[in-house]
Structure formats: C-alpha cells, structure tokens
Amino acid sequence: MVGNEVNEDDRPWWRFGMMWLVVGGLLAVVIASTAMAVVAVRGGDTSVRELAAPTADAALAPAHQARNHAATGGRR
Known about the structure:
Elements (H helix, E strand, L loop, with lengths): L16 H26 L5 H25 L4
C-alpha cells in the first residue's frame, strides 16, 4: 500500500457491490415467494365441487331422464 490507497482485497465483504447484487436478487425471490404462499393459503377460493354441489343434480337431470328412458324402453 502506498499512502492512503486501499487494496480492494482489504475491504470487508459488504463493501463489494457485486455481492449485494447477488444477495439482493436472491432475497427478493425469497420475499416474493413467501408473500405468494401467504396469499395462496389465506385467500384460497372455495373449490369448484363446493360451488357446483347445489346445482349438480339439476345439471344432470337431462342425462338421467335419457338414461331412464333408454332403460325402460320408452315407457313412462
């Protein structure tokens, strides 16, 4: 070292900009994925089966009528 010059290798690890670029990117991914997991767990919608359960019988009525008609030979 000559005078007040500081060798780049003498600096502490947090003084290197490239280190913050790498760590910052990884930290951003971890924070974003944690936030998305919280949103998915807390804000989960009801399942499609729960939504379709009350109207499932009405939607299948034509199919049941056709099946019964075919099984009975057209008799009512």
